[in-house]
Design a protein that fits this description.
- It comes from Carassius auratus (Goldfish).
- It is a single chain.
- 48% of the residues lie in helices and 11% in strands.
- With 352 residues, the protein is an alpha/beta fold.
- Helix 13 (237-243) packs antiparallel against helix 14 (254-275).
- The relative contact order is 0.12.
- Mean pLDDT is 90; it is low at 43-47.
Length: 352
């Protein structure tokens, strides 16, 4: 079976990802074969039946969130203006990465401003963004000055003072009333978020059209909104509990008795992590087991499972099988310490 290959260093996911997506042999309809390399160039031994791919897509979406392609607050980003990225047609590649991630069972970027998202999918004709969303401090302060003008005379003075900036956006106009300040500010915001980025925006949309994903966005914008826009984290102990199916020994066996005891430790551990964390989160547990830190839009296959190990000191994970192997330990305190240590020392911890 053909596949698209990626060689990824967790410390610089974007570099390997871009090479892979630009490769002439890349086919978005094929499965992804991901190999992680460590810092000294050795290859992690792993057959990719899904786990490495999901981890790669998770790390890639995290890299995109903080990349130069988007700007703004963490919970409300817009497409940025980067001439070098535009020349390299990288906005197209970013759009393609997002489409491939979601269709192949990975996460979405979960960082877009709702205003940007609704404009992207065609629900609105303009981006209605508040001044506070403009990341450029100097520009933001000028627009706030104009907004706060109290008289027509003050407004005209400010417009003349910052005429070069306002004229760049084509929003400089003959000011007849104090209310004209809204037209100046709104016009500049439209130019800043929409018109100056027109070519990059179109190429980003072209990339999203990969695997017919953009058509799905247009048809079902509300369904995909949680995967494209920021939302407050709502992963709970109950959700994680229901996600993993325990594989228990036959009823009445001595193994079953031990497994049920440790299963209780596991459930209490999820509650403890949610309540106090101790440097750990439920997202870390999900990432450890599946390579994802959120439940994807596509169904998580195979079904995540819990298994039990008698002679292990720490938990182990098989991300290809979405499985956590829990150690059978004598007390909850030892179990909790072992879980924290095992997850924190897993490859990639702290990079997502």
């Amino acid at each position: 079976m053909s596949c698209s290959r990626f060689n990824i260093n967790r410390a610089n996911v974007w570099d390997g990802a871009l090479r892979g997506f630009k490769r002439s042999s890349f086919d978005p309809t094929c499965s992804l074969l991901v190999k992680f390399t460590d810092d000294i160039g050795q290859t992690e031994e792993a057959v990719d039946t899904g786990g490495p791919t999901r981890e790669f897509l998770t790390l890639l979406m995290d890299a995109i969130k903080t990349s130069r392609f988007f700007e703004g607050k963490d919970d409300g980003k817009y497409l940025s203006f980067d001439s070098k990225a535009a020349e390299g047609d990288e906005y197209f590649q970013v759009g393609r990465m997002v489409a491939v991630s979601i269709v192949h069972g990975g996460p979405g970027p979960r960082c877009f401003s709702p205003s940007f998202y609704h404009y992207l999918v065609g629900k609105v004709k303009t981006i209605e963004a508040p001044i506070e969303d403009i990341p450029d401090t100097e520009v933001r302060n000028v627009l706030l000055e104009i907004t706060n003008a109290r008289t027509l005379e003050e407004l005209v003075e400010l417009a003349d003072k910052h005429s070069s900036m306002v004229q760049t956006a084509g929003s400089y106009r003959c000011l007849r009333t104090l209310g004209d300040k809204e037209k100046v500010v709104d016009g500049y915001i439209q130019w800043y978020f929409t018109y100056r980025n027109h070519v990059s925006f179109q190429r980003f949309k072209d990339g999203l059209a990969t695997l017919n994903f953009f058509n799905a966005l247009e048809q079902h914008p509300s369904i995909f909104l949680p995967y494209m826009c920021y939302r407050a984290e709502d992963l709970t102990a109950e959700i994680v509990e229901s996600l993993f199916r325990p594989q228990l020994s036959p009823t009445g066996s001595s193994n079953r008795h031990e497994e049920e005891r440790v299963l209780g430790y596991w459930l209490d551990y999820l509650i403890a992590v949610k309540e106090d964390g101790s440097g750990m989160s439920l997202q870390d547990i999900l990432m450890f087991a599946t390579g994802l830190k959120e439940i994807p839009a596509a169904k998580l296959i195979p079904q995540p499972q819990l298994t039990f190990q008698k002679h292990a000191r720490f938990p182990e994970a098989n991300v290809c099988a979405n499985t956590i192997k829990l150690p059978i330990l004598p007390s909850y305190e030892i179990f909790e310490e072992a879980m924290n240590y095992g997850i924190k020392n897993a490859p990639g911890f702290g990079l997502h």
